[in-house]
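ESCALATION

Customer reports they have been waiting on this structure for their group meeting. Please prioritize. Original submission:
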Amino acid sequence: MSPDIVAPATDELLDVELDVALEPPQPVTERYYKEMRFACDLKGVHQQDQYVLQHSNSLMVIGLAKLHPLRQPGAPVPVSIRFCEKITSQKPSGKKKLGAAWLNELSPVCYITCTDGAEYTVFSGIRGSLYELNQRIVADPTLLINHPETAGHVAIVSPKLKEKYSVTSALMTRTQYRQRCADAANAPAAAAATADDCVMDRC
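Update from on-call: job pushed to the front of the queue and completed.
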């Protein structure tokens, strides 16, 4: 070894190795899903938003998006979930899921009942055939809120092969939805400022 080169101490090497080992893993939604889109104000209901995650194999995972009423602080807690009988009555078979229920954007997928008696409907949000319903949320409805994009997803939908790229084209992109969330967060402050201005005008 050249006298001008000093080997790092053993502790330094360990520190480097630990830094690499402890680096946080990439989120599942970024490792396996190539695109995330958002269907907003479904059925004309304010902030009844759902996400659509497109897997690398073109399957679409659907669930409650960040602004959905049930994901807000202080929202009622889901206590029961019932899947739509119209789609559960159709029994697909084989790897290609032949005979699976066909879903349009506003096809009901499940009905959620909360602690306060309020009921919410989750829609498909996209066109495609039903590939799988997430039965885990029936056993534990709180998964919808605690793990909305993983164990708490609602269903998996398989679009037509010729529509796998176009089926989400009308939905909000991740960037657009971030802006929507930012606008929603700023809305209460803007409303409060407007109210203050009204009070001052009356003085």
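Sent to customer with the following note: The longest helix spans residues 174-202.
Escalation resolved.
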